[in-house]
Description:
Layout: E1 3-8, H1 11-30, E2 36-40, H2 47-55, E3 63-67, E4 69-71, H3 81-93, E5 100-101, H4 109-124, E6 136-139, E7 164-169, E8 174-179, H5 181-184, E9 190-193, H6 200-208, H7 219-224, E10 228-233, H8 234-237
Parallel strand pairs: 1-10, 2-3, 2-6, 3-5, 6-9, 9-10
Antiparallel strand pairs: 4-8, 7-8
Amino acid sequence: MSVHRFVEADAAKAAAACSRYILNCLEQALSGHDLATFAISGGNSPREVFRALAEAEFNWSRVHLFWVDERCVLPYNEQSNFRMADQCLVVPARIPRRNVHRVFTELIPDRAAERYAEDIRELLSLPQDRAPAFDLMHLGMGADGHTASLFPGDSLVQDRERITGATYVEKFNQWRVTMLPNLILGARHIVVFAPGADKAETTRAVFEDEFDPLRLPAQLPAHLGRNVGWFMDGGAASSLS
Length: 241
């Protein structure tokens, strides 16, 4: 486990630094390989990261894009993580549609999660008894300590058998499909983008409190991830020792 924390003056500078880190990881992954696998998160925080990636002079033709989690809404609903990334990254970066692997949220949640796992295994040509290893996993963190759609108290935080699952998030009255710890922690590189002063105490707790991912799921990448780059602004880092 190796975690490197990067603190920038503000969220814009943190987004720019995070995008450069992502591109470097993808370049490494593509060196000598036919393709790279990149899983991205949604929400509002990564918009500027995606815009910076789209503006970079980077050849996306061999990068396959997946979603760490998705809200169970239709793909062009305003709450859809796919829709946001499509507008901010996929279209402006001209990522080939054949490389874009969204969650089929038209299906019922459990079946959408199963279908997503099947799609991941098919692309990577992996049997059921092997967990895929993504080249790069991009995560965020909520002020409550959730990451992906793994929320505090959710039993999926402890699921080490499956690679995807469906979960009902009561606070949002919404079903979601999410990658599970077995898949997230198997990534060769993880980047976490978590700016904002509202996350200062949670950031401190993630790194400095006793390890209890059922209380703070974001501790999973912080304590167990491989090659983790954690990007934050001064506000998010303000309570760290």
